[in-house]
## 1
Amino acid sequence: MPSISPRFRFLNVRPWAALSVAVVAAQAVASGVAVGTSASGSLFGHGSGPYLPPHVVSAVIGLGLLALTPRLWRGTRAAVPLTVGGLVALAAVSAAGGGYGEAAIETCLASLLVLGRGGFAIGCRNRPRMPMVCAAIGAWGAAYCALLAAPLVSGGAGHTLGRVLHHSLVHPLRIGSAARLNGDWTSVIEALIVCAALTSALALRSLVRPAAGVNRHFELEERAARAIIDRHGRDSLSPFVLRPDKALAFAAGGVLSYRLIGATAIVSSDPVAPEAAAPAVLERFMAVAHQRGWRVVVWGASGRHLEEYRRLGLRAVCAGEEAFVDPQKFTLEGRPVRKLRQSVNRVARRGWQVEVREGRQIDAALESEIDALEADWRSRQRHLLGFAMGMGGFESEVRAEDLYVLARSPEGELGAVMRFVEHCGNLSLATMRRARETPNGLNEALVARALTLARERGVGQVSLNYAGLAHLVRNQPARSRARRRLIRAAMAPLCARFQMERLVRFNDKFSPEWRPRYLVYESRATLPIAIVRVLQAEGYLPERSVRDAPQSSRALPRPLAGSPRAKEVG
């Protein structure tokens, strides 16, 4: 979708059009119900016969327009002609009833929608849910049959079955005379009409719903993405693009991965692409996503492409920081790392042995030990967290270039495993697993051993953990004691829930460089739902099951392997 210059953002017609249509539709529904019930308490009004009065038709149209207003707010293109048709029909009903002022307003609103239709660029599925359509047709058919039978039920003179059928063909909306109906039968007709109106509104809404998606990728796509990542994946989050429950999108020689939750496509970190091509990959994907009726959020974006993202009309907010360590500067000597050195020495004094293996050195026996530790660890976890910075709840895939740091107890049992994935000569911490009983400081000892080996091998940088909102935890005001207390009080529930302070304290032991990570979103109006969707993807909020789009005739491959958990301190 083409971006709008900031100086012309006030010309955005979508929210104003949606609000205006909502007001007109709500007024039509309210007035239609009020006219019918004010005198007799019946939807049909006092003394009306078995037919659909104008105020009932107006209420039904208004209900359909209300169903379309959320899609107008989103900018769904297909909702515009449907809304214009509804407004024209509503204006005709209003004019027939003598409401020329209301008809003029509804006609003008329809005209303005036609003129501003260029501002509605979001696509949709363009296909309603057939069960809902069938239910609506059945409900209207039942309501019409009830209207057809109304003269017979009312017991009026001369209302034979043949006469009723004759009038039903000549006057479809007025069957028989205007005799007063039996109260119970009127209630049945009203209930059927209300049911038909509601199901019609739901069927109309399903017509303009976003397209479904597939939250997985094919084996051929994974091989193509793996080649791109091996060549251009310099970001610490690039290896996690291949998480099996993410779909892949290719463009401009690059790739990005995303997960669809609701109508929001959550892109996992920056696209992996040749130099300066990442924004082009995101731009192409946004165009496709908008055609399908999706909004786009980038979670865990770095600061390298923020200016290009802003040129695409996107916004960004810092969501946390990631700790990077330069192995060439890492040392266990000196007073600043005294506590870290003590932790490493304490683990060694207790008889624990720390060793490092490459993925190519993992044999079947050791892999079985790692799998057993993984199964025991998972049995103690309520939820598996992580999205952009982890591989989720999937089986481990041993890759030759990855590093495994292992800790064995004095009895020789495997007590902890730490895995670092390799990408373009750098390392990124992927998983940390520990047995039930391990000494304090074991994680510190494993990380220190990995950093020492990385220094010996000339590794450029090692990414440790991402800490959400770490910039707020670390950068508290130094002078204002009141502000510090206020920030701590506000952050306390978040720190307890998201382990922010714990991660910050752990990472600070290695004197890292903190680099911000961003949440990139489309507009301020979409920011709240973007935050909710990201928390669902990360596992902090429950996620509704997403029904995938129908697949082509080619068979899906077996589930692709990956690393089992987000980065965290165990």
## 2
Amino acid sequence: MQRALILGLFFTSGFTALVYEVLWMKDLGLLFGNTAHAAAAALAAFFLGLAVGSYVWGQRVAHMQRPIRVYALLEAGVALSALLYFLLLDLYYALYAPLFQLLGDHYALWIAVKLVLSLGILFLPAFFMGGTLPVMSQYLVQHRERLGRTTSMLYAINTCGAALGALMAGFYLPPLLGFSKSYLAAVGLTGLVAIAALGCDRIAIAKNPSDQPLDPPDTQPYLSPCLSPRAIRGLAFCSGFVTLSLEVLWSRMFAQVLQNSVYTYALILVTFLLSLAVGAGLAHGLMRLRVQPLNLLGGLLVAAALLVGLSPFGFNWLTQGLSYLGSQENWGAYMGRVFMSSALIMGIPGVALGSILPFLLHLSQPYMTSAGHTVGDVVAVNTVGAIIGSLWAGFIGLEWFGLWSSIRLVAMLYLILTLLLLPPMGASTWLSRTAPVCGLLLFISFLDVSRLPRVRVQPLQRKESLYQVWEGSSATVAVVKRYKALKLKVNNYYTVGGSGAIKFEEQEAHIPLMIHPRPRSVFFLGLGSGITAGAALTHDVERVVACEQDSACIAPVC
């Protein structure tokens, strides 16, 4: 009964963590702007807190006599530091305008300022959150043989709670309660978790005063070393890198065919988290098999790489060449279509991705000094990889390589790691050598992503042809020629101007300027094709300023 209650508390911990994260990202988007770079800075601050917390508390918990009491204090720390959010946010609103006046023209420096401001708000609660998995592992894992199976169960339970939290924060809590009350409800729930954990600690001390193990030793044979600690850390780092890179890349992929709504992306996040939880459950089951661990790990890495590499082709097939999903359906049917599509394209490879980190914790059993130390070390390295992966995808991958090539590069990374890090041992030789080489050859030959469309054009129905296309961190922008007219499209479907409607777009400038008695300075929010702003220059005005929210749109215009 006590164990079930503790697991329920850890489920609730995952629930509140994602409620916080979703609400933080929404509110900080209003302050910092909803650009890809601003969102990446905020996410990097959050994950940095998780990484540091995982490492620090993992190092310290081995020397603590009552881990569940430490867990309760961590949850209390999350609740108290989360309450500071409102105070700091008011301060940031007062500081933001002067800082922008001073540094707004220096883009890289301004992003760094946003990162520092995000750290001030998010680091401390994330630091306490990061310690919960190592501390809970220290409490539940009393025998070396139980490390992998217990931590994979904890990871799955916590991630299921996170998926439910993302669903509630994305769909239900803000419309029902509003932002502030939803946030305070999450803080209150975190406080209840802390109080309940303290109660569990007192019960455990009363029932188990001699500090005997909670669980009997596992009947499985001792797992002999098969990967070095350095190789385990390297794979853990790359697992985080690949997983968060793909979250960014797959979100961009679906942006090409879905409505640009909060609900759409909340549902994609829920699907992604659920697939990771199922993957942890898969790893838990694989640990019971009496199979050489290298065979299982090699199979997981190769399967993940192939499924990820196939996702662009499956997406292109499912959407019939980037056709809009659910355009003729009502809201309920549309959301059902989004869930089924994301489950097919992201969910299946996501299961393979989600199984790798828990399985690496299983392979860490021979080197375990204490459960909390081992879990904290591996998870911290994994989280650092996640930070770098999300930044790479948003700032480098999409800018330099484009969407499809970035996904292929991430998939190929797993195959290369399998070749470099998995030693050939018996039956694992095929999985560690032949299968990765075959996969790499497949990706550069038959599965060539350069053949996939980046923008949907309809040459027969609408006499369209692709004139030029740009891919950036914030959007995919294309110039499409229809008959003799050119039009500018963002993320495949949002048309932001074109020469076919030049008279109407010019009138948007002419009419207000002709009505105004003495126009001197004109401001346009959104440049688009530049036709409307250009029309303003034909009037007797001193200055025309156009502010384009998506920098990727400026390249085709210029």
## 3
Amino acid sequence: MQLRRGGRVKRLGGLGGFVALTLIMAASGRAPSAQASVARTPAVRPRRLLILSLPGASWTQLTSTGLPNLDRLLSRSAVADLTNLTAKGAAHIGDGYATVSAGTRAASDPTSGGLAFDTTEPFGVRSAAQEFARRTGLTVSAGIVHLGIARLAGANAGEPYGAKIGALGDALAAAGYDRAVIGNADGAVPDDPASSTYHRDAATALVGSNGVIPAGSVSTDLLQTDRNAPFAERLDPNKVLAAFTSAWRDHSVVLVEASDLARVDSYAHYVTGAQHLRQLHDALVDTDALAGRLLANVDPARDAVLVISPSHPVGSDSLGVVALAQPGGEPGYLRSATTRRNGFAAMVDIAPTVLNLFGISAPTSMQGQPMSSIHNSTSLSDRRAFLVQANADGLFRDQLVDTVQTVYVTYAIVVAVGVALLAWTDRHRRLLLIAALGLLAYPSATYLAAVFHFATSGGIDRFWLVIVAVSVVVVALCELIGRRTPFGPLIVALALIVGLHLIDAFTGLRLEFNTPFGYSPTIGIRLAGIGNQTFAQLAAAAVLLAGFIAAKARPHRTVLAIGLLGVTLVALAAPFFGQNFGAALAATPAFVLFAWLVTEQRVRVRHFVALGVIVVVAGLSVGFVDLLRPAQQRTHIGQFFSQVGNHGWSGFTMVIGRKINENLETFSNTGWLLLLIAGLALLAFLAWGPTQSLRRLLDSPPAARATAASLATLMVLGYAFKDSGIAVPAMMLGVTVAALAFVVRGEIPARTDRPPRREEELTRARQPL
């Protein structure tokens, strides 16, 4: 790219190719991030696998109770927090097991998800095997049959994830591995006619698509009466152990459910809080004793053990538990390409991990990714403390997110009203400019506050105290550093936003995690990279800052402005930095348009066509390069391309349709919608209102036109390509509103400079009738 004197461009034809090349080079490199670690795959494959299911368990529960047998297992395991989102959101136990079965987000049927029976059990006047034959046409003489298999399939037919119940069981069976499920969480109370008797959802995890599990037991024979236990029932450890030893043979996968924990969760609605805690403690102690007897039959050198919790604890969005001990494995953390963050895995990753242990390829219907072990030499207590803290921080963030964002929306609307009033009067201008700086500082303060872990050190009151204090300090710094020029404080504030997020993107994105404008593992899907609202702040601030840099038409300043946008694009789009595919699609044409206009090039129809081509090239470049990376290192971009490759047009439409629905649903968010309306109304008022200050601004330097066009492109494409929908352009408008407070100040002429005719009209309007 060559610049002529005065900032004009001789050649910009290669700009689109330069952007695509930059994205390819960034995508194909190695991450210097702190998250980058070596995933170790043991050379020895296990001969068999025990899946120990702890329904409703969290790391907090496993830490607060003395559990020596589980502690010994976990001390040699790779561990992680489990994000247990399903097709229905937070994981009900049936949905959790269905998700394990499908290897993608799935749903259960609330009335028949637990209808699994040993073949010899009675069901009505017939045996379960006879009823199963009547429902499916299949004759089964041994093992377990799931009478609700048809309704399970139907429950997922209308979901947008393409879940196939039985995908895990079918893949294991095709590879010659036996399957068994052992557990029974039955329980009902006479005073609640809505409560179901059968709670055998664990069978869904390993069921085949035909509704059959070859071995194991889910019958009431596993239970014994205990008048102090929930529903007066608990597992008989001797019978569970007998069923396990019968099924525990070479080339087998056996799931044993600690069903007493499931009963404690189900019974929580009927007991006092103190009694619930007592019953939970007793169930954990009994589970630990049972685990010790099961593990006595496990050879660590030849067998693998996978611990999971398929549901949230009752009344909480707490993360679940997952741990993997395998032959040749080392203690540490688990991670997957789904979460892309050490110490975190997703429910959808369970099935691909089970198959990967035995070297079995996962079916293309599975969207989860195998978990890998990341060695970490810290003690089990230290690793558990990290996981407990991350869960607490996530729950704390989720508690605050609505309030924090409502404050931002209200603040931005107030500043927008102030900017509109500034067009009529010079009063309180100084106060408005300070408020505008505060609007820019406020989100940054919420990111910086994450380092204090207020969930366990100070709580909500101290959080807000720090937010206010940090915002005041940032505003003071902006005033101090930028005091020499009218726009100096604004430029400093924009530079702080851009610098904060670029540094964070290039050093591991720690400030995104568990922050109100970032994301959390407790309710979020994204756990790595730059989140949607951060993208909106960073992109808008970068464009505005680039506009101010290029305002003086000097070649070196223009190059610096374009370079800033190029670095921002890499931070947003690179798979090991921002990992934000939608941001790449939105920012690439917006930034290219800025570069084109700021160098005073005329825009024609063919240039808009070229921008469309750049969007496609940039998206394909990032996607295909990510697809070339190892499967366990791919981001959601490469996974999307892989799904399209496996399923063709149906895979494409399924994902895109889901994104469109999520996007449209954002219009129900009243706060962001109000900010969007207020921001657009302000722009219209400044452009076509009495002062027409925005129109005069756009008639001036090319940098102003380039900035406006780039911001408009970002807002439109940000809405189109991001599933956060209207929150993206609304957040961008919040940044823009703050900048307009300074721009209007510099552009509104003094009252004596206004056209005489307009002044006369105002004078007559003030006169009494």
## 4
Amino acid sequence: MLAWAARRAPATPRRLSIVPRTNFRSAANCLNDRAVFAGWGRFVYHRRWWVLALSLLLLGVVAGVGFGFKGQLNNSSSVHYESIQANDLLTAELPKVQGAGGATFEIVFASTSMHVSDPAYRAAVEKTLAPLAADSHVATIVTPYTTSGAAAQALESRDGKEALAVITLKDAFQTARGYFPALRSTIHSDQLQTFVTGNVAISADFDTYLARDLNRAELSSIPTSLILLLVVFATLIAALLPIGVGGAAVVAGVAATLLLARFTDVSTYALNIVTLIGLGVAIDYSLLIVNRFKEELQGGADVEHAVERSMATAGRAVTFSGLTVAIGLAGMLFFPGTFLVSMGVAGSIVVALAVVFALTLLPALLSLSGHSVLRLRIPFFGTRSASTFWQTAAGWVMRRPVPVLLASLVFVGLTAWPVLSIRIANGDEHMLPPQAQSVVGVDRLAADFPGQDQNTIIAVVHYPSGPVLTSQRIGELYDYAQQLKALPDVIGVDSVVTFNPSLGRQQYQDLLTTTPSPLPAAVQQQLSQTYGKDIAVFSIRTDKPAQSDAAVSLLNRIRTGAHPAGATLLVTGNTAFNQDFIHLILADAPGAVIFVILVTYVVLFLLVGSVLLPLKAVLTNLLSLSASFGLIVFIFQEGHLASLLNFTPQSIDPTLPVLMFCIVFGLSMDYEVMLLTRIQEVYKRTGDNLVAVTEGLARSGRIITGAAGIMVVVFLSFGLAQVLLIKAIGIGLAVAVVIDATVMRMLIVPAVMRLLQDVNWWAPGPLRRLHDALGLGEGAAPPSRPETGEAA
């Protein structure tokens, strides 16, 4: 069918009667006086000093309030799925099991020559721990020297050369995060190696590496973006303006995010995402407007009309681009209770600020600078060879749309192929670089200490109606423990009815119901951690890793298996947390995807007034996403480039596809809007689809290339991050932009538009009238003038 359409297409396509040229002209003339964007351009020009002052005031107020009243970032969750409910029960009834509400961390001591039992080894450990023992924040310190028996053996490595110290703090996790770096700075030894790990240490390492990643990205992306802007514009002032607007958007966005953290939970990743998105879109939006302003000046327009026309065309495109990006980010709001919501809100805020500054601060500066943007030219930059290249490329695509389309689809299919083998699992400490001290500590624990490589699934049996230790319930719990022991891959079960393997069902009933208890005090203390007022806890040990298929199968058997009558069963532990979160993401994802696609479709219809072009845009976006997902799996799951990029290959975190979809779907529309607005402008002037697509592609190719280049630079600067999630997002977005700005926008989109011809612009009569009535058109085009060769 496509080949037939290509053969049948005449050299000069005729226009369909459903969209005659006169309709476009009359609509344009009708909208000329009402075009909101052109009117805004005139307003800014005549009140440029006021607009500039108000823009800077907005920046100052947001920055002052945000940095002055900032809150603390964290990755807490308020979703009460099963594993969280079980954990809440444990915290409420067995606080000692949960560290008495205090945070904990561990120190691994290691020596190449001394044994843990050597006096010199013990002296070195105690000397290292002395500052912690004297610190008022520390509640307890447990070492092989402060306990005995099996507990002491568990704190000593198999070869006897490593020892483990467990430190419990008096404060809860969020409070402890604030002072932990100062505590860690006191931990050092002249004789032993020390590796600080555990939840608080891992969190502190994430904070440290994220801050370093952010600083590195800013320092590398801004200078490189300036060089690319000089290549695009060839004049210093024109290149500096987008950098200034991008900096303003990022500063205000970061400040707003920190202020948001004062009132709600905001992810520790939020600042990196805000900077990544804000810098990229703000510079791109400014590039588009400055480029159009330059083109209008070079075409003979005065400054006022250049500002007006830039707002009516590029300003309009920027507004719709911002809407599509914000819509994509709003998809994260469909995951309530997770840190994704805060990232979506923070991202939407910085995009809104980028649009606001692009439509206020930038046109005010352009109005004041006027023809100065054409001065201070950089030699050898800004040649017209790029325009010639895109003119040739446009003609090449128009002459062979079917081969171009088929070849592009084959390329996308091959690139997306690895996504079929994707494995989803929650990220852990190995999202940090392999050399991070907390990661080294975790790996040493798993490799060298007995039992530390085991995965524990915790089953909480809850009796809402009464006490646990009645004779009947003890018998039921014993039977349940035997049932758990018989499950595949279970290597042990620790509970109130399994502490002595030589005892039988009746003996447990007798021992646990006798008052006073005949059990030794040490045993009673041990058992007090396995049951509460109305719960019994079963710690099910397995040697299968927490995120393995075998561990997930075991979890499912426990959850779906029989449990004591009259009780409810809640299961927690790392495997349960992992699966519950994945199920939460999968359950909420369809709503987010449908929302983003439908609202994006509506916004694009309002932009172009066509029902087919938004559908094509959505489909090409999905193709672009598929290709980028495939490459993410190829790199980060399968481990290609792991040594070069310094990361540990692992399953894909469930939040990564969500973040990629929400960000990429919005950002991809930037180039769609840039391309379609230019094509639409030519089509309204000529009524000829072939001319419009060819000229639109030729004249927007250079600006899309420049914009995409800047986006890639910004995203790759985050691809150099040490934290895997940020690294994967940066590289994934960079790949997506490259594919989108080349294969999608420069090959597939024009090829499809060439084949569809004038049907591209069709809309039912009522929808067409609705679009015209809303007054969102560009207004009448200026009188024809010689082409400048500049991109729009």
